[in-house]
Structure formats: structure tokens, C-alpha cells
Amino acid sequence: MVRTENLSKRYKRKWAIKDITLEFKEGEIIGIMGPNGSGKTTFIKSILGLVIPTYGKIWVNGVDIGKSTHYKRDIGYMAQIPRFPENLTPTDLLRLVRDIYGDGKVKDYEYYIEKLSLNEFMNMPIKALSGGTKQKVSAFLCFSIDAKLYILDEPTASLDPYTSLILKEEILRKKEKGATVIISTHIIPTVEGLVDKLVYLLEGKVKFFGSVSRLKEITSQNSLERAIAKLNHVEGF
Amino acid sequence: MILIVSMIKVCDDCKFKDLKEALKLTNRGDTVLVVGGKYVLNEVIIDKPLVLLGKDDPVIDGNGKYEMLIVKSDSVIIRGFIFKNSGFGFVKDYSALRIKNCTGCIIEGNRFVNNMWAMYWENSERGIIRNNYIDGGRIKGAGTYSGNGIHLWHCKRMLIENNEITGHRDGIYFEFVDSSIIRNNRSYKNARYGLHFMYSNDDVYYDNVFSGNGAVAVMYSKRILMFRNTFKGHWGGTGYGILLKDVYNGEIKDNLFYKNTIGLLFDNSHNLKVHNNVFLENGIAIKLWASSTKNKFYENDFIGNTFDITTNNVSPDVVFVENYYDTYEGYDIDGDGFGDVPHRLVRVFSVLTDMVPTLYLFLKSPLQDLLETLEKAFPTIIPSLIEDKRPRMEIINYGKNGKFKQEI
Amino acid sequence: MLKVFKYEFYNLIRSPAIWLYSLFLFFITAGFTWFTEDPSKTTSAVLTLTIFLMPIITMTISIMDYYNSREFVELLLSYPLKRGDVYTGKFFAQILSLVIAYSIGYLVPIVIKGWFYEYTLSLYISGIMLTGVFVSLSLMFGVLNDDKVSGLAFVVGFWLFSTLGYDTLVLGIALYLRNYPVEKIVIPLMFLNPVDLSRILVVLKLDVAALMGYTGALFKEFLYSKLGILMALASIFLWIIIPYIITLRIFYNKDW
Fold it and tell me: Over chain B, what is the mean pLDDT?
């Protein structure tokens, strides 16, 4: 579904990510983890075409993304800090998404309004909404798109535990429908028991790529938390 | 002595049908009554005192080719005619009515329409021009190609009153005309000047209204008295209320200057008293050139002008005192009706534009505002060219007893 | 492009900043209208304020809207939209909402009074042209500077330059070369600055234009000739299109 080859991005003198070669398959849930500044966001934004790679290539659904923006029709994206235009309402934003993707691509929105209890907020301007509600709107817009790939950047950062749980359920639902989901986060419980594979980035490089069980195995740790802590200190996997 | 005066009647059904023929048969002092009709005349000469009376608007027509009537005698009275369609040319000056060497001629109550010159007086005195309506008509916009409405050359002791003049080059033109009076005339929309003095002395004009001409020009003249006139709407690149050039010892008082590009221009003019005038909403109320000396300006009102005074340099004997300026920002603590701090007459922006007129392109720009703000904030930095040491706190003339307001 | 334009416009037209701007213009115009009762004086007074304040107000509204919507732009760019369309949509949404605010603020008092004169119309057109120029410029400053403070510094800097600095410079040149026919230099220089150009466009229609005398006549003759109109339009157009193209290029190659 997503393949990168030597994907590298340099800002000024520093490499944010360097030579990342990975492949995610259809129906996989992938967690991208790593400390702050490890290149998680740069990696995700490269896939979305928001960051233009210094060199390296990316294919989504077999298409080289440098060629066209059309591949984004199959992507749903939930940004880290959702800051929508203050004077628009969630309804306006939904209309915008439907305008862009077409009604055929945005079908399940009523289900998500219900699921995320957004009913009462749908016609309020964004500036009147709390941080958590805004993130719910962000999730709602993302999931309403009938995509093959979902990219979520720190999705649970300001969500309450209950909503986080709903989010997890919905991620699994998308997986069942055959979608690939990429979740970038530094919050371990977000990925715990959810992801099929884990990418661990450190200083712009892939420190680990594989299943959670394999990570536990090679680090000889039982908990994901400890396994990850160990990754930070041990050379060469 | 018994004077035998006869009256000859000319009309379509009369014994005399032709005005020219009738004139040949007249004797000194006869009256010719012309009732209606149209008479084409080509340089017909009146060489004896006569009274020409028009009734029912008789027309003296030049067919666009001729100078019609020439008076070469004293004491001729012409009243009640319509003079129209004189010749028009670049080589010869055609005038509907020419008066030569006449003492005591009276031209009144006539209409002059579509003539190159309406009246051309030469070497005459004690003449009266009264109640005539003069319209250059077809030459409107033809600018300086046309002639003047009332043109006087080498005359004296003339009275010009209650005429209405428009559509000529100059409405009233004086060249070497002395000791004459111009009053109660309306001269408007003439292509060059509403009134034009050249080398004329000891004249007075008052209660006239000049509007929409190029200007009123007083040039190379002495002791001209100008009062209670209105000069308005002389607007354009060279619009002046009064343009003074080489004028000596005159007086300008009780006039209204309203909406002229420049109200008063002083070019090498000296010893004039300018007082009790109202300068209202002109571009520049008074423009003074340094060559003008010993002029005194007092008790005038300056209201709503873009610039009150502009000058390149002021002669030290030019005095502005006790005028009212709506832009004065001083105070009167002692309550004597005069501001306690002098009023700076020339603003820095107008000094600059006087140096480089192109800088007028910065009119209404933030830069102009900035310069004016700086000038107010730091009066000591920018030297003042000329000041009024006793500016009035209240309006002096405008609107007092209803004065001037009705003119607008 | 239209989709982005539509929602950017919906957002802006509901923003308090736009309506404060409109209200501000309304009070100024209505104020002068009521006080002077003279269309020429009103135009003259509004012109002075418009020329000075409109650049900084429109540029601030424009650049702040850009900074506040960076994350939204990011979201839009994650959708299947061309980068150019996202920028162009925003560009036109800003221009249209500012022009609407300007139109309401300025035109309502003028229409109520029925003051339809050449100069009131000239001022209206000048205002619209300036809005275009300043939106184009401030978006460029925004896209060039990720830091809000330096973006605003550019806005303020350009504002002072275009309204005062440039004219001071030209004034200096004119005074320095005053023994030469300076109008040959100054007139073309006036065409280069959109603020000067739009101001003179209005002033030439006002009564005070008579004061400009020979230079004014020269300028008028040129400005209202075919070549002059073409050059004026070209100048304004270039002021809009060049920053627009620069911004578009940066926008295309920018990392979000």
C-alpha cells in the first residue's frame, strides 16, 4: 500500500529523516514511534505530499506520489493540532470535504457524528469548540472519507479516554474493511494492542521495523514500554 | 436757436424700408426709429449726431462677413437693436459696432450676438455703455481667436454699467483707458479674461460679478480701485480671481474670491492695499511673487482655502496683519480678539511646491500630512517665511450682515 | 480552486476583522459625508485616510488570516487539491471579502447621498486596485516568513515605504534635480508606486487638481491617453501578478 525508498529530508543542515526504506501492506495498522524530533511528523507529511523529500521516492497504491495529487483521494488524514478556520462550522467543513472528494467518497459521516457525539456541535463555529471537540471533528472528517489509507498524527493527544477507546474501535473497523492505517504517536497506550507493526524512528533513521511481538522478543522485554525504552539505548537491531 | 428735429421711421411697410438709405437722408440730431425687420449692413458710417431707436427687436446683420456699423461722430445714441453675425477673420478685426473719436455716445439696451467683436471704441470719451447683453455665441471655446465683448482703446471718462458679457475672448477690455467706471456688470465664461486692463490708470470697478472666465487681469496699470466685486469659479491650470502684473498703487477691498485656482496673483505689483476681502475655498488664496513690494493685506478672511498664501520669497515690506485665518491654531488669552501667537502664513509644502511645481503631485499624500504635522510639532525647526503677528480670532467680513453669502 | 475559494470566503466574510474594517470605513465616510455635505471635500478627506490606512489594515488582515490558517492550509493540502489551487483560492477569497468590506463601508454613505461623481468613483476603483495589490504583497510576505513577527515587520516596513518612504525619496530627488525638467523623472516614478498612482488618479478628478498646474496637466494628458491608461493598469497589474507568481512558486516548493 505504501512503499518508501531511501526517503530523506534535510532542513537546513540537519537531516530530519534519512534513507528510510519501508513497505506497509494493505490491511495493516502501523504505529510510528520515536522520541520528539525523531522524524515521525516529517515521515508522515512526506507521504501526504506536504513535505517535499530531498531525495528518495514514495509510492502509494503503486503510484509515485511525485507525479500527481490524485493519490490523495484514497487518503484520510487527521492532523496533530487541528486548527480549522474559526468562523466555519463542522457542517461547513463536512461540506468542504464532500465538495473535494465527491459525495460517493464521503458516506459514513452520519455514523461518525453519532459515534463521536458531535450532533450538538455541528452548527457551532469552530472558535466556540473546546480542544477535545476540535480533535473529534478532526477524527470525524478523517474517518468520514472512504479511504484506503488513513494517516493519524498524534490522534489521542487531547482526547478523553472514552473517546480514545472509540477511536481505537474505529481504527479496527477500517482495518476490517481492508484499509491501511498509519498512526504516529509517542503515547504507548495508543498503539498497545492495536498495531500490527511498529516503526521506531531515532534521529531520522529506522531503528526498528516489525511486529510488536518481535520487538518484545529481540529486546527480551515483556512490556512494550520497556521494550521501547531499551531500543533507545541499544545499538544495532 | 431753434432746432428742427425730424423723425424718420424705418420698417417693412414704411416709406423707408432700407436703414442704410434712411441714414443717408438724415440731418444732425434726427431720430431714426427702426421697427422690426432685418438689415444687412456693411461698414455703414454714421457721421453726425443721431438717435437710433430700435423697436420690436430690429436686427442689424453682418451675414458673417461684414463689420456692420461705424460711428464717426459725437453724441450718437443707439438703443434697442440686435447686432448679430459680424464677419470673422484672422487678418481683419470685425466689430459689430465700431465707435471712433466720439464724445458722449450712448450704447444701451442692445443685444450683440455671434459677433467677433461686439463693440470697439477708439479715441472716445464720456461714453456710456449700459444694459447691453453681449454673447459671442459661436466663438465659445474658440479661445483666443475671437475678439472682445466691450473693447476700449485710448478712451477716458467712460461709464460701463449693467451689461452682461459672455462667450468672448475678454469680456471687457481696456487699453489706455483712464478715469473710467465699470460697475454692476456680469462677465462670465469668457475664454480669456472677464475684465482686462492694459496701460490704464485711475479707473474703478465695483459691484461686478466675474465667474468662470480664465481670470480678471490688471496689467501695467496704476491707481485702479477694485471693490465689492465677486470673482468666482476661475478654475483651471491658469485660473485667477485677479492677476496683477506691474500694477501700482491700487486698492482691493470688500471683494469675494470664491473657488478660484488662485484668488490673487501678485506679479511685480507694488503699493496695493488689500483689505476686507473674503477668500473662500480657493486653491491658493494669494500667490505672491518676490518681485512685489510694499503691499499691505489686512482684515481679510481666509476660509477653506487649500493654501492661504504661497510665495517663493517675500519682500520684507509686505505686511499681513489682523486678518482672519480658519487655519490659525493659536489662542487669545488676553481676550482682545487677536491671537497671542503669530500665524505662520506659508506652509512648508507650499514652499517646496513653489521651488519645484512638480511636487504638487504629492498633493493629498501622507507625505504632505507628515510635513504639515512636523511643521506644527516643531515650529522652530522650519523657519517661517512670513507671519501675521495679530491674527484675528473671529471672521471679520464673511457673512456679516449677510454679506457675501448671497453671491455663492 | 473554486472549492477552496468558497470556504475561505465563507470563513473570512464571517470574521470580525473584516466587519470592523468595513465599519471603520463606513464611519469615516459617513462622518465626512455628514459633516461637510460636500462630495468633493468628503472624497478628498476619505482619500487621505484611505491612502494612508488602507494598506496597513488590509495587509494586516490578510497576513494574519494567512498565519491563522496555516494548519488549515496544511489540511487542505492533504486533500486531493493542487497547491496552486489552494493558494489561488485563498488569494481571491481575501480579495473578494476585503473588497466587499470596502464597498459596503465606502459605498453605502456615498449611495445614500447619491454622490455619483467621477472622483467618488475613481476613489472606489483606486481602493479596489490597492486591495488587490496589498493582498498579493502581504500573502507573499506571509509565505516568505514562517515567523509571524518578521512577516508583520515586512508588512509595516512596506506600508511605511509605499506611503511615506518612497515619496520622501522622490521628493529628495526632485529637489536635488530642481534645475532640470524634473517632471520627466517624477511622473514615471509616480506610476511605479501603486499608492501614488491611485492617489493621483483621484486627485486629478478633484478640484484641487487645478493647483497642479502644468505638471498636473501633463500627468492628466498622459494618464488619460491610451498609453497612460495602459501603463497605469500595467503597473497595478504587475504589482498584483508579480508577488502572486513569486508566492505561488514558494507555495509549490514549501514544506508544511
Answer: 90
Euclidean distance between CA atoms B93 and B86, whole angstroms: 10
| pLDDT tens column, A141-155 | 999 999 899 999 888
Range of the domain at B95: 1-213
Q: Which helix (H) or strand (E) holds C126?
A: helix C118-144
- What CATH number does residue B105 fall under? 2.160.20.10
Helices C166-176 and B366-377, axial angle in degrees (round to 10): 80
CA distance A135 to A132: 5
Beta carbons of A52 and C255 less than 8 Å apart: yes
Note down the domain range covering C167. 2-253
Distance of CA C36 to the CA centre of its chain: 26
Split at pLDDT 50, 70, 90, the class of B175 is very high
The total number of structural domains that make up chain C: 1
Inter-residue contact B229 to B210 (CB < 8 Å) = yes
Each residue's pLDDT tens digit, B177-232: 999 999 999 999 998 999 999 999 999 999 999 999 999 999 999 999 999 999 99
What residues contact C176, with CB distance under 8 A and at least 6 apart?
none
The contacts of residue B220 (CB under 8 Å, 6+ apart) are B197, B198, B199, B245, B246, B247
Query: How high does pLDDT run on average in chain C?
Result: 91
What's the number of domains chain B is made of?
1
Structural domain includes residue B56: yes
Instruction: Give the N- to C-terminal CA distance of chain C in Å, as an integer.
Output: 19
Residue with cell 511636487: B359
> What phi-psi label fits residue B13: left (phi over 0), alpha (psi between -120 and 50 degrees) or beta?
alpha
Assessment of whether the complete model's pTM goes beyond 0.90? no
Number of alpha helices (DSSP H) and beta strands (DSSP E) in chain C = 12, 0
pLDDT in tens, C233-245: 999 999 999 999 9
Rounded Cα distance between A186 and A34, Å, is 6
CA A233, CA B394: separation in Å to the nearest integer?
A: 90
Q: What is the mean pLDDT of residues B28-48?
A: 93
Number of H helices, E strands in chain B: 3, 41
Query: The complex's ipTM?
Result: 0.88
Q: What is the pLDDT of residues B272-310, one digit of tens each?
A: 999 999 999 999 999 998 889 999 999 999 999 989 998
Q: Do chains C and B touch (3 or more CB pairs under 8 A)?
A: yes
List chains adjacent to chain B, taking adjacency as at least 3 C-beta pairs closer than 8 Å: C
A102: closest chain C residue by CA: C80
Intra-chain end-to-end CA distance of chain A, in Å? 25
Name the pLDDT band for B140 (thresholds 50, 70, 90): very low
Whether the CB of C8 is below 8 Å from some CB of chain A: the reply is yes
Report the pLDDT averaged over residues C78-99: 94
- Within a domain: residue B80? yes
Which chains border C (3 or more CB–CB pairs < 8 Å)? A, B
| CA–CA gap between residue B207 and residue B200 (Å, rounded) | 19
Question: What integer pLDDT is reported at residue B201 of this predicted model?
Answer: 97
Alpha-carbon separation of residue C123 from A82, A230, C201, C218 (angstroms) = 41, 70, 8, 21
Q: Are strands A14-24 and A2-11 parallel, antiparallel or unpaired?
A: antiparallel
CA C239, CA C235: separation in Å to the nearest integer? 6
Q: What is the pLDDT of residues B333-380, one digit of tens each?
A: 999 999 998 998 888 888 888 888 888 889 889 999 888 888 888 877
Which residues in chain C (9-68) have CB-CB distances under 8 A to chain A? 10-12, 14-15, 68
**Cβ-nearest to C255 among A51, A70, A88:** A51
User: Mind telling me how many Å the CA of C51 is from chain A's nearest CA?
Assistant: 30
The grid cell for B148 is 472682445
CB B83 within 8 A of CB B118: yes
Nearest by Cα to C190 from C206, C205, C171: C171
Q: Which residues make beta-bridge pairs with B301?
A: B278, B324
